[in-house]
Amino acid sequence: MENYRTYLTEEELPTHYYNLRADMEKKPAPLLNPGTMQPMTAEELEGVFCSELVKQELDNDTRFFEIPEEIRDYYKTFRPSPLVRAYNLEKVLGTPAKIYFKFEGNNTSGSHKLNSAAAQAYYAKKQGLKGVTTETGAGQWGTALSMACAYFGLDCKVFMVKTSYEQKPFRREVMRTYGAEVTASPSDTTEVGKKILAEFPGTGGSLGCAISEAVEAAVTREGYRYVLGSVLNQVLLHQSVIGLEAHKALEKLGVTPDIIIGCTGGGSNLGGLIAPFMGEKLRGEKDYRIIGAEPASCPSFTRGKYLYDFCDTGKVCPLAKMYTLGNGFMPSPIHAGGLRFHGMSTILSELYDQGLMEAVAYEQTEVFEAAEVFARAEGILPAPESSHAIKATIDEALKCKESGEEKVILFGLSGTGYFDLLAYQQFNDGTMTDYIPTDEDLAKGLAFVPPQPEE
Amino acid sequence: MENYRTYLTEEELPTHYYNLRADMEKKPAPLLNPGTMQPMTAEELEGVFCSELVKQELDNDTRFFEIPEEIRDYYKTFRPSPLVRAYNLEKVLGTPAKIYFKFEGNNTSGSHKLNSAAAQAYYAKKQGLKGVTTETGAGQWGTALSMACAYFGLDCKVFMVKTSYEQKPFRREVMRTYGAEVTASPSDTTEVGKKILAEFPGTGGSLGCAISEAVEAAVTREGYRYVLGSVLNQVLLHQSVIGLEAHKALEKLGVTPDIIIGCTGGGSNLGGLIAPFMGEKLRGEKDYRIIGAEPASCPSFTRGKYLYDFCDTGKVCPLAKMYTLGNGFMPSPIHAGGLRFHGMSTILSELYDQGLMEAVAYEQTEVFEAAEVFARAEGILPAPESSHAIKATIDEALKCKESGEEKVILFGLSGTGYFDLLAYQQFNDGTMTDYIPTDEDLAKGLAFVPPQPEE
C-alpha cells in the first residue's frame, strides 16, 4: 500500500520558482496607473515595493526564478509540506476516487502564506531596508510576515483591522511574540488613519483602510517598503513551491491527478498549487480539470465581471484587470476571512476567462459540514478557507461514487482552523447563517468601478 | 550538510511499544489499594480501565508490546513526527553544541497526547465498549482523546474543569467538533458533582474533582471505562514511540546524543522520549545525561518527597509511590497547565531515585524568554510546558559555548502554544509573574499524604 504521507527529501525541494505567465500565450493584463491609465512602470512600483519583487511582478517571460539559498534554508524549517493520501476520507465517503491533499498548515502561521512572506522579507533585507509594512485582517498573513521578519532580522509593522485586533487578540499576540509592531487600524499614526477617524469616530476599520495606512507608513518612512500577501503576480510566483512539490511527490508515486481543487480568495493558494500543472496544460502536454472553490457570499469568479478595478476599497492601489465584484462590494461577515476579497489574481482571472479553469461557490454552512467530516476522518482541523476546497473535493468524490470512476483528486489544504474556533462554535451550536448577495448588492459593488481603458 | 528535518519512512516506524520497566532491575513500586494497602489487582483495575490496558499497566517484564495494525494505521495520519536539527537556534546562541528536537506538536491536539489517546481508544473499541470518559484541564488531553474517539467510532465524555470550560472555549469547541460531549465540572450529571456543587456553590472546579466525576461516569454507565492521559505506566509505554522514532532517526544520521531533555508534569512526555535511551543506559550499553525540566512553582522532583500518595486531590485513585508535593498541594496558576500536577510517574520517580536522571526547575518568566528566542529562531511557537525543556536546552548549550564542547543535545518539543496565547500576551505585556512555593506551602501539601506502608 502507498504511504499515507509523502515527504520529499531536502535535495528534492524546488530550487526555482516557476513563473506560470511565461507559458501563457495571452498574458494577464498589466497593472494600470489610475491617473494616466498607462501600465505601471518599474520606477513607479519601486516607491512602494522592493526592487527585486517589482522585477518579478512585471516579468511575464522568464520561466524560472532561482530561489536564493537563504530562502531555501528558511523553507527547510517548515518545508517540504506533506502530500497526504486521504485514505480515511475515502473510506468515510465510500468513494472509488483517490484523494490527495497538499497540507500547508504545519507551521506557526498556520497557512501557505509563509512561502511568500519568506521571499518578500528576504528581498527587503537584501535591499538593505530597515523594515516592511503590511495590513492584516484575520491575521494569517500578518503572522507569516512577522515570522519571516524575525528570521531575517527585519522590522515589521502590521496594521490590523481594528475589529480583528480587538476580537482576535490571539493572532495579535503571535505577531507580537515574533517582534512585530501591531497597530489597530484606523490609527492616529498615519494621515489617512487620522482622516478616517475624524470622519467616522468609533469605526471598526476595514481591510481597505488598513492597506491605505500600511502603504502610507511605508512610503513616508526611510528604509521601508510595503508588502502584500496575495493577489499579486509575485505572490503566485512564490507560492509555486506548493505545486512544484506536489507535482514531484505525485510523480514519485506514479500518480497523475484528474482534478485539482483549491479555495480562492485573492488566488495565491490555488495559483501556487496549480502552477506546474497548468503549465503542462498550457503547453498541451497534459490535461487537468482545475476548480477554484469560492464562498457564495463573495463570488468573484462565479458572479463577478472581468474588468479593470482597484484592488482596495481606499483606491490607493493601481488598477488590475480581474474578476471583480467591484471595489464597492462589501463582503458579508463570513468566517473565511481570507476569501473576503472583491477581486482576484490577474493571472487566475485571465486563465478563467480563457476557460482553462472552472469555479464553484459554496455557502458557509455546507462548507463547515464538509470541514467536520474531514476533521473526524483525517484528524486535521481545517481552516474555513481551505474547507471550501474540501467541500468541492467531497462533491467530486461523491460523483465518482455514483459513476464508479476511480478519478484522482488533488486538493490544497492551505491552512488550519486553530484560530477560527468562534466559527466552529457557531457551527457546533447550529447558529451559523449563510449570506448570498442579491443582484442589487452586486450592482452596488460595481458602481465604483472606474471607466475602462480602450481595448 | 545534514538535513534540517529527518522523517522516518512508514516502513521504519516502530512496530512495538517498548516497556522500559522490563529493563529496570528495581521495578517501580506497585499501585496500592488505599483500603487494604495491598497491590491493586487486575480485577480491581478492570472495573475502571480497559482490560488490555490493565495488562499493560501491571506488566513489568514484557519488553515489547506489538502495536496493533489499526493503531499503526492511525499513527500514519500524524506520524512520524520530525526530528529537527535546530540550526537556527544554534546560530542565535553561538554554541558549538548540536541541538536536535523531536517535535510532537504537528497534529490538531497540538501535543504528544494523541499517541496514547490512539492506543486507549483502540483498546476500548476492541473490548466492545460504547465509550470512554476522562477529565481535562487545559484541554490537550481531552482534544487528543476526542480525535482518537472520532476515528475509532467511540463515544467520548470529557469533564472539563469549569474555569477552563469558560475561559478556554476554543479547546472546548475543538473537542465538540470531533463529536465529544464536553461537560463543565463540577456538574449535576454525577453524584460527586452534585455533592461538590451543594457544598461549594459557584466553584470553578479542579482537576481532582473532574477526575472524580469522570471515574463515576465510567463506572456507573454500562459499556464505559475511564482513561487517563499521563502518569500511568501504560501511558509511558504508548509514548515510547516518541523515543523509538528519535532513536532510529539519530541512528540514521550517525549521531549519539550526550544529553536528553524533556519537560515533566505527569511524566509521559519525558518518559516516552527517553525510553529506548534509558533502556541502553540500564543495560549498560550507553550512557546519557537525562534531564527533566519542571516548573519551580510545582517542583515534584526537585522539592518533592518519594512517598506513596493519592494521584488525585479527590482521593478516589489508588496510591502510587512517586515524587510528590502531596495531594494537598495547590499548584499556583502558572500557564504550563500540563505541568501542574503534584505527583510524578512512578517509573520516572524510581529512575530519579536511583540517580539515573536529573531534574531542574524554572520560573515561568525565564521559560517564556526561552520560548521567545526559540520561536523567533526556529519558527515554531512552543507550548509553555515544552518551553521548560527549551530553557534547559539553552542553558546546556550556553555551557557548551563557554567550555567549547560540541555536545549533542536532544530535547522533546512536546507541543505547540497556539491555545496558550493569553500567557504569551502576559509575557509580551510584561505582566507575567512567578510563583515559588514556600516551605510552608510544601508542608501543607504533604499534610494529607496517607500513612506509608511498611517496607
Features:
homodimer, 455 residues, alpha/beta, 4-stranded parallel beta sheet, 18 helices, 15 strands, 42% helix
Please provide a brief summary of the model.
With 455 residues, chain A is an alpha/beta fold.
Tell me about this structure:
The structure is a homodimer of 455-residue chains. Chain A is of the alpha/beta class. Helices cover 42% and strands 16% of the residues of chain A. In chain A, the strands form 4 sheets. In chain A, strands 1-4-5-15-10-11-14 form a 7-stranded mixed sheet, with helices on both faces. Chain A has a 4-stranded parallel sheet with strand order 8-7-6-9, sandwiched between helices. In chain A, strands 2-3 form a two-stranded antiparallel sheet. Chain A is globular and about 60 Å long. The interface between A and B is large, with 44 and 43 residues.
Radius of gyration of chain A: 21 Å
Assembly type of the chains comes to homodimer
What structural class do the secondary elements of chain A suggest? alpha/beta
Name the strands of the widest sheet of chain A in spatial order: 1-4-5-15-10-11-14
Strand content of chain A: 15-25%
How many individual β-strands of chain A? Answer: 15
Please report the number of helical segments of chain A. Answer: 18
| Amino- and carboxy-terminal Cα gap of chain A | 55 Å
Largest sheet of chain A, if any? 7 strands, mixed
**What does the overall shape of chain A look like?**
globular
- Give the chain pair forming the largest contact, with residue counts: A-B, 44 and 43 residues
Low-confidence sequence ranges of chain A: none
**Percent helix among the residues of chain A?**
40-55%
Question: What do the pLDDT scores of chain A average to?
Answer: 95
